[in-house]
Amino acid sequence: MTDVTDVDDVEVDHEGDEDEGDDGNRLVGSIPRDVLEYLAKQIVDDPGSVVVEVDEGQGSVSLRLNVSPDDMGRVIGRRGRTAQAIRTVVRAAAAREGLEAHVDIVD
Q1: Could you tell me the pLDDT band of residue 107, with boundaries at 50, 70 and 90?
Q2: How far apart are CA 71 and CA 54, in angstroms?
Q3: In a 3-state reduction of DSSP, which class is residue 27?
Q4: Which single residue of 20, 42, 50, 100 could bond 60 by disulfide (Cβ 3.0 to 4.6 Å)?
Q5: C-beta separation of 87 from 103 below 8 A
Q6: Any idea where the domains of the chain sit in the sequence?
């Protein structure tokens, strides 16, 4: 026979839990920035040329993606479909932080 404990009698110590909203030293917009950088490096031929610049705003983050001129077509894709897919994924990553994200692909 198993011993059953009443749920109301159990005390839980939440001290030290990481899910309480305390971000510690994490930078604002780091998740969408990392996602953008990862996606871009997987698409281009020269991953070393990928540079992501971040500007923080109130409740939003603006990301500028710089790639080699030879890789610009790969990042944009036919009719801009790849660029639009990248923007969608980065916006979803930013939403996890409670932010809006804007991605610009610059020459």
Answers
A1: confident
A2: 21
A3: coil
A4: 100
A5: yes
A6: 27-106
